[in-house]
């Protein structure tokens, strides 16, 4: 087991990882920017190292500084959290070259999944259902027309190097296609330095359903069921739940089994998420995230398993702590992402939190790095906390969520709490009837 883990992140996820390390009796080091000197994870860590000024590229993305912090403090492993360097293959390789364990998959697996064309090809080879489309990159107009005619309009053109919902263009007819191909290629080249794009069928009303997987790196793989993350705004997840209101036990076991076998065949190590669009009973792979996700706590709530403990165990060579049959699903969980944003315009609302009171009681979990008197710096993303509620079934979970939202107090800044108070009273949400466009339509109708 590791002696000392360096946490290369900030905010709620840094604290989340720190808690797991404390439980396992592992020493912690955190790195932070000058803007985060007062952050909770810095206060609670055994050691902290300031690695630079506020801009992420000068601190949280500065590989040399982080490696130096490991050497100075004698950390033998790094947990990257999510975002920042968590899916940076070069970072994983550099740590390996310094004999420091990256708590995540190999650099090669990160690289494969970071390239969407390569990821899709790999998924298909491993027996994961994919969206019908081109086999690889498409450059010629003629070829694009042929493929689109074959799969049928509408189609979507996506950048192989894309991410964060950027670099996608929908074409509803052949006339749209030519323009879409050109703009997608030039935008991808400018944004990602790689103009490779591919074509796939555009699904009109899918849900976003993702499967949590784990591999031991030696040919074993398990799944922890799915999460439904269809409630999104601008491709950013807002509300996540497990299990999905749209799946039955048979579908869950089937897609879970497909994913677990794929992970085993790939020889993948650690936590991963295989993301699908789901429409008319069919799953279509869109991408794989090779890290812990923001929404992992809903899976923890319904399985009772600490996924960060498991990541650390697997990375240290201890293997998976359970077999598939030992992973049982109990009840229902919902996570609300609480952002420091105006709940109507979604403009960031940094500043000082004058009062912070979190809900409590059975089935309530709050993951947050903020506290009363904390000043939110303007440099980073606006997530200030996550409320995760668990109940014996979805109805109980929703009742408990409504109560918890009423109790939650954040004064001094604007937050998205009022949005969740509206959503919890909405009939479509109560019935679990929503797709990936539902929230944007709802917000547009409110205006
Ligand atoms: P990113 O890595 O940028 O998040 P994804 O491939 O995960 O890109 O796609 C992001 C979002 O774009 C999806 O959640 C979905 O809303 C939409 N999308 C992607 N592919 C399709 C498709 N084939 N049909 C319909 N919507 C799609």
UniProtKB/TrEMBL annotation:
UniProt-listed Enzyme Commission number(s): 6.3.4.14
Molecular function in Gene Ontology: ATP binding; biotin carboxylase activity; metal ion binding
Record keywords: ATP-binding, Biotin, Fatty acid biosynthesis, Fatty acid metabolism, Ligase, Lipid biosynthesis, Lipid metabolism, Magnesium, Metal-binding, Nucleotide-binding
Top-rank taxon: Bacteria
GO biological process: fatty acid biosynthetic process; malonyl-CoA biosynthetic process
Family matches, as PANTHER family: BIOTIN CARBOXYLASE, CHLOROPLASTIC (PTHR48095:SF2), PYRUVATE CARBOXYLASE SUBUNIT A (PTHR48095)
Free-text function comment from the UniProt entry: This protein is a component of the acetyl coenzyme A carboxylase complex; first, biotin carboxylase catalyzes the carboxylation of the carrier protein and then the transcarboxylase transfers the carboxyl group to form malonyl-CoA.
NCBIfam families: accC, PRK08591.1
Protein name: Biotin carboxylase
Organism: Mesorhizobium muleiense
């Amino acid at each position: 087991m590791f002696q000392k883990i360096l946490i290369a992140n900030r905010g709620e996820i840094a604290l989340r990882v720190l808690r797991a390390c404390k439980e396992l009796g592992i020493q912690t080091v955190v790195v932070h920017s000058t803007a985060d000197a007062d952050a909770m994870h810095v206060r609670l860590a055994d050691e902290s190292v300031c690695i630079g000024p506020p801009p992420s590229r000068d601190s949280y993305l500065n590989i040399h500084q982080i490696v130096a912090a490991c050497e100075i403090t004698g950390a033998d492993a790094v947990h990257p959290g999510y975002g920042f360097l968590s899916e940076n293959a070069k970072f994983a390789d550099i740590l390996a070259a310094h004999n420091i364990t990256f708590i995540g998959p190999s650099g090669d697996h990160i690289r494969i999944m970071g390239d969407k064309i390569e990821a899709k090809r790999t998924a298909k080879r491993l027996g994961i259902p994919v969206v019908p489309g081109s086999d690889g990159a498409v450059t010629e107009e003629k070829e694009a027309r042929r493929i689109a005619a074959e799969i049928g309009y509408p189609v979507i053109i996506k950048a192989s190097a894309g991410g964060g919902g950027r670099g996608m263009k929908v074409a509803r007819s052949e006339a749209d296609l030519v323009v879409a191909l050109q703009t997608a290629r030039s935008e991808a080249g400018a944004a990602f330095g790689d103009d490779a794009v591919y074509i796939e069928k555009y699904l009109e009303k899918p849900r976003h359903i993702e499967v949590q997987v784990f591999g031991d790196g030696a040919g074993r793989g398990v799944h922890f069921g799915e999460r439904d993350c269809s409630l999104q705004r601008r491709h950013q997840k807002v509300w996540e739940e497990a299990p999905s209101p749209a799946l039955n036990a048979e579908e869950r076991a089937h897609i879970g089994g497909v994913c677990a076998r794929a992970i085993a065949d790939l020889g993948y190590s650690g936590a991963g998420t295989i993301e699908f669009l789901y429409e008319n009973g069919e799953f279509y792979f869109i991408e794989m995230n090779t890290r812990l996700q923001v929404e992992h706590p809903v899976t923890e709530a319904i399985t009772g398993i600490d996924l960060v403990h498991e990541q650390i165990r697997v990375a240290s060579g201890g293997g998976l702590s359970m077999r598939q049959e030992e992973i049982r699903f109990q009840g229902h969980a919902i996570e609300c992402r609480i952002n420091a944003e105006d709940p109507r315009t979604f403009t960031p609302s940094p500043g000082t939190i004058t009062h912070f009171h979190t809900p409590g009681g059975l089935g309530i979990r709050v993951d947050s790095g903020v506290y009363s008197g904390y000043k939110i710096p303007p440099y980073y993303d606006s997530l200030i906390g996550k409320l995760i509620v668990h109940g014996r079934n979805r109805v109980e979970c929703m009742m408990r969520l409504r109560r918890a939202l009423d109790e939650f107090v954040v004064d001094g800044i604007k937050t998205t709490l009022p949005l969740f108070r509206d959503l919890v009273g909405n009939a479509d949400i109560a019935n679990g009837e929503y797709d990936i466009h539902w929230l944007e339509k709802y917000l547009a109708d409110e205006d």
